Amino acid sequence: MFPVEKIRADFPILQRTVNGKPLVYFDNAATSQTPQVVIDTIVDYYQNYNANIHRGVHTLSQEATDKYEQARILLQQHFNAEHAYEMIFTSGTTHSINMVASGFGSLLNKGDEVIVSALEHHSNIVPWQMLCEKTGAVLKVIPMNLDGSLQMDTYQNLLSEKTALVFCNHISNALGTINPIKEIIDKAHQVGAAVLIDGAQACPHIKPDVQALDVDFYVASAHKICGPTGVGLLYGKQEWLEKLPPYQGGGEMIETVTFEKTTYAGLPHKFEAGTPNICGGIAFGAAIAYMNNIGFDAIAKYENELLDYGTAKLLEIDGLQIYGTTNKTSVISFNVDEVHPYDIGTILDKLGVAVRTGHHCAQPIMDFYQIPGTIRASFAFYNTKEEIDILVAAVKRAVAMFV
Ligand SMILES: *Cc1c(COP(=O)(O)O)cnc(C)c1O
């Protein structure tokens, strides 16, 4: 049995009430909650060894540098990267994607093609549009099916020797559907294109193996994996990170500077200009360690039980429709009849239930279904079936008010 009660005790926030009701937190796809070990790691940093890294000979600076580099190694092991210096600390997924997009600005030529999927988060659409505008490259879109899957035959037809880059999320944040990224990567490589996978939504549920995937770039945010906000990851294969120009100029990313010429530092420092989020990086490592202690197989199995239970219970409600119905993680995106998702979300909050309503930064998906948005309940490994019962009862109450 999955020790959910023991796990819940690790998360102090789960004890609080909202509007006089026990908090039911089902907005995990927007950000996850933080276990005490991660909070303790943050406090420990500021209480005991707060210092700038890599620069000082003094003890505090060395301690901070060691912990920060240990966190990088933890990330390397978690994602099974070949080298620790292929793990670049960023401020989050959006930052990571922009770094790659900006780097490709000097590698793409007019007429090159960039392929993105129809299931992307806005942070995975806008940087590529900007890149294409700047370089004259052409943006192509892999269309989606009604069940939330991608049209893989069309993808095959879009690929050609003109394809320079392919971008796709591992798991859609709006629908929770899992994309066939291995197939997407292999097919792109057959035409010599590079692939960036947005793992922001996948990493809370599965442990990606970047070498087995043979992916060129993989990005994630700590705050969706029990870590703090403001820190994330850019994994890049060494050969690609060496090919890309630096993103920002500043301290830490240079080897020598004169007014005539600057030579850049090696990896990972080339991409880590300025003082990074030191505490955040260390806490990111603590969060990854915490989740690995529980085990991603156990997490996935338990979350699947929650998904099946929640799906069955919600579908008992008349007029309830779920979007994204194939091969999913524990995210349920739904509407009830014509009731506006915002109206239901507001009532749910009054009853202590936190869900996300709206377009989930994925407006093209909402346009595809011709809906203004959805109600998205996203479950984490610290949620319970009892909480799902509370959600279902609350949705019923809300619907009764509006229908
Ligand atoms: C959350 C999310 C992002 C953006 O992550 P930030 O941490 O806000 O930068 C990008 N893509 C997907 C799939 C996401 O779920």
Automatic annotation (TrEMBL):
Cofactor(s) required, per the database record: pyridoxal 5'-phosphate
Segments forming domain Aminotransferase class V: 24-391
Organism superkingdom: Bacteria
One example GO MF annotation: cysteine desulfurase activity
Enzyme class, spelled out: transferase
Pfam families: Aminotran_5 (PF00266)
Gene3D superfamilies listed in its UniProt record: Aspartate Aminotransferase, domain 1, Type I PLP-dependent aspartate aminotransferase-like (Major domain)
Catalytic activity: (sulfur carrier)-H + L-cysteine = (sulfur carrier)-SH + L-alanine
Alphabetical keyword list: Pyridoxal phosphate, Transferase
InterPro entries: Aminotrans_V_dom, Aminotrans_V_PyrdxlP_BS, Cys_dSase_SufS, PyrdxlP-dep_Trfase, PyrdxlP-dep_Trfase_major, PyrdxlP-dep_Trfase_small
EC number: 2.8.1.7
Function: Catalyzes the removal of elemental sulfur and selenium atoms from L-cysteine, L-cystine, L-selenocysteine, and L-selenocystine to produce L-alanine.
Family: Belongs to the class-V pyridoxal-phosphate-dependent aminotransferase family. Csd subfamily.
Protein name: Cysteine desulfurase
Native source organism of the sequence: Asprobacillus argus
